[in-house]
Amino acid sequence: MHSHHRIRPLVFWPTFLLLLVALLLSYLDLSAFLSLAGAANKWILGHFSWLFSLASFSLLLTCVWVYCSPIGKLRIGGADARPLLGRKRWFAVTLMTTMAVGVLFWTTAEPIYHLYYPPAAYHLSAGSPDAASFAMSAMFLHWTFTPYAIYTVPALLFGLVFYNLKLPFSVGSMLQPLLGRWVGGCRGQLIDALALYALVAGMASSLGTGALALVGGINQYLPLPASPFSIGLVIAAIVVTFVCSALSGLQRGLTWLSSINTWILLGLAGFLLLFGPTTFILAFGLESFGNYLNQFFRLSLSTGAASQDGWAGSWTIFYWAVWFAWAPISAMFLGKISRGYTVREVIVMNLLLPAGFTALWIMIFSGTALSIDLGQAGLLKGVLESQGVENVLYTIIRQLPLSGVMVAMVVFIAFLNYVTAADSNTDAISNLCTAGFSADSAEKAGMGMKVVWGVVIGVVSWVMTSYAGGVDGVKMMSNLGGLPALLIIMGCMLSLIVLVRSGKLETPPVAAAAAAAKENQ
Questions:
Q1: pTM higher than 0.85
Q2: Does the pLDDT value for residue 232 go beyond 80?
């Protein structure tokens, strides 16, 4: 069998077995499992909130520094490297890999939470115009520049070490400029396994919530209540679609799906802007973005230590933990598709353009949600508390013309959105678990592995959502991956700084890279 089809056992098996154990524990004694995971989660948030805030803020500053440095002109893969994707397709794939299904439902539900339950430190009255303005600022913080910086730094670093330094396809390779040979061999594989566990748990959590949202949408037309059968049906449809897409290769399946998805999202946003409270969206969105920029440092570095009200831990720090958990492996995919573009172009495509797109999305969707709730005496607050997160968006669409068609479109987008995010991450997971995968074998790695991980993620998600008390347990598992992932990404940030300052990128050490590749297999 050719080398690139061999499993890296220390990456594949620990993650696979750990997920199996977690599933069994949650199935045998859910309350004990949730209690244990909850206590660990609380301990992490209690002791490391400051580190999550500091790290995420530092990553944004690092992006600015690298963009302005002379290395900005360097091309990923060398001066003669040809791009894997054209710019439009590159943007579509990047956006769909990072945006995922959560942004559809949370950008309408989350601002309602902040409107009625703002942090004590800000001394805001629940349901007031000031609380509405704060809610929008919090949305910009949680979904735009800072989270995309958490992806961009490791993505840029991976592109450089994989293509320019010819290091193996692994998380350990990203830490090599900082830690040298220490991250080779077994230690490198165990770092990969840790990053893999965080991502698979996160994907299973996202698939579970996505499936519930889809069942909720289908239930608007057909009598299909949430049950193990209906959830299993939706999850199976998603898994089959993204595995087929992954098997068809990057150039065909994923770019095609991403392009369709981007255009439909633009159409939905345009429709809401046109038929929603247009003037309020534009005026309030602009004002709130100004407030976000004005309060940027306070919002970014807030930990809730003085007020002790738990808001920062429940929201900002929780989000940073989730973004960090996804970042190491998602960034490997983003780095892989950045070949042929300069460092500055990678920062623009992975940070500025997606953050700008999401900022406009928030202005439209969060602005509409706040406008409806303030104008109709807490309508959406009632829906949120009685029917759940996913029904807030459906309630908003019911207020608009062509609501029947638009709800169907949202269900379709939610389906496609998860498929495209899962496709790209399954691609990275498969490459990571496959020995001998290198920059020269970029389109050949692990077809069977994609099927295996697609099925594993689907089964974990279905069992947790249907039989183990919903997605709480798997969310906890994902969050617990946030702390080790945070340490990995901080290592990536320091590694990028060391690499930029070392001058190694001008003349890649081919012999050293070959030795490192051999050691990592």
A1: yes
A2: yes
